[in-house]
Sequence to fold (494 residues):
Amino acid sequence: MEERTLDEICAAEIVDIRIDDYGFTGEGFVRVADGWMSVPGALPGELVRVRVSSGIGRGRRVFGDLLEVLEPSDARRDPLCKRDQVCRGCQLRATTIDEEMSFHVRTVQEVLEKFGGVPREELPPTEIISPQPISRGDAFRVRSNLSYRCLPKTDDDDGPGFELGLRSPVQDALVPMFDCPALTTPMRRLVTTVQQVFASLDEMPWDEEMAREAGHKPGNPPAIRSVRVASPVVGRGRVEVCLCESEDEDLLEHAVVEGALQQLFERLGDTLGDEVGLAVSTSNRRVILKDPERLVIPLAGLRLEVGYDDWFPATLAPSEALYARVLDLLDLQEDEAFLDIGSGIGTIALLAAARVREVVGLDINRHSVASARLNALGNSLADNATGKRCPVEFMVGGWENALRNLLLDGRRFDAATINPMREPLGRRALSYLTKLGIGRLVYLGPSPASAARDIAELREMGWQLDTLGAANIHPATYHTMLVARLSHPGDPGE
Ligand SMILES: C[S@@+](CC[C@H](N)C(=O)[O-])C[C@H]1O[C@@H](n2cnc3c(N)ncnc32)[C@H](O)[C@@H]1O
Fold:
């Protein structure tokens, strides 16, 4: 606890301060006499020298930039990244693996106490779900969204004329990603190739700021907002050039046949290998410039095809560890029916199919449901022991409607998974679970706070929280996947 007030700290500009704790996003956190201070990159227990970098904001909080660690924590390690201080994409890169894991465990326990209404003494122990072994040098990310910026060219400047990378919260620059330690080797190679193609252009394409200044009018050159890159395997991947909004209805057609972008697409088309797809898109349209249109990712023994509109995991080995543990927790039996709620491209449903009698997946994204159906056809879903193929069905629908429709159709299930994005499902949707006969549930929550809110609702409906886990699916970052197994004794008369 820091005894100075926020006004005193702001007036001093540079302060030496002791970090109390972590904030929710992995930053160092200090309780001040009349508020809070957040210091990204500082660890609990450390004495650090900080430059105040913001005024007193909402919730009486100020931010500080870490200038020097005066007394380092035992949990501090070499971040193995030369851009750690300016990038901030990996908030836990300078901590030991043990510290990183205990951060995830704390996150899960804190949200359940705060938003889930579960007293600390009633929480089951929290297990860590992570690839084994994991080391500081492991890189896992197989997709990334790179912002684009055109740099003003001056006569005496022979720089590249553009930046492609992550927006830095610390400096006015994009952090290049070709040597990012979070990216897998296939990703680094593809990012390097894209970077080289941009560097070879005679003229740099417009960026978002140029488009904004020119007013998004028809006739203005199409401008690039970002470039999405994904590559799970060396030589296989896809590149999507995302354009800024414009009033030009034929923007995509113009982009492909005119000006600086035409050269970019031609060179990308010539340079990217046969198994790397290329597309150009605005927020509501996409043109495929080069096949393959679908990306194939090898995951947990499955061959999964992914369209441009599908969500798919950003990491492979950590996700495989997660899915393996989820299947264990479900404890599926061969005469059971299983429901995958938020099935995406079908991964959990297809993994469960080898163990049960019947599987249904549901998702609001019709593109993902189409991909999941394709993936059901493209993978062997037969039970190893009996050789019998389990019927797998995927349906399009929002949580509440889809669950109600299943109920109206007289469908019944024994076990389910829920894997939303970052929003809770809410009470009404969750109330259908027991009506559908579901007695065992594994909740995979990418937003631990939202998951905890749903768990609070479930507990009020008589569900019991059996086990808790913290999955480290984005190693070196603060992102925690909350994994909870719940069970319900069943409603008499249902
Ligand atoms: C994190 S992804 C999970 C995908 C899948 N379980 C997997 O592991 O590959 C979350 C999924 O929830 C779906 N979703 C989001 N909101 C939804 C809603 N209201 N109703 C149904 N599905 C929804 C998204 O389309 C997305 O595919």
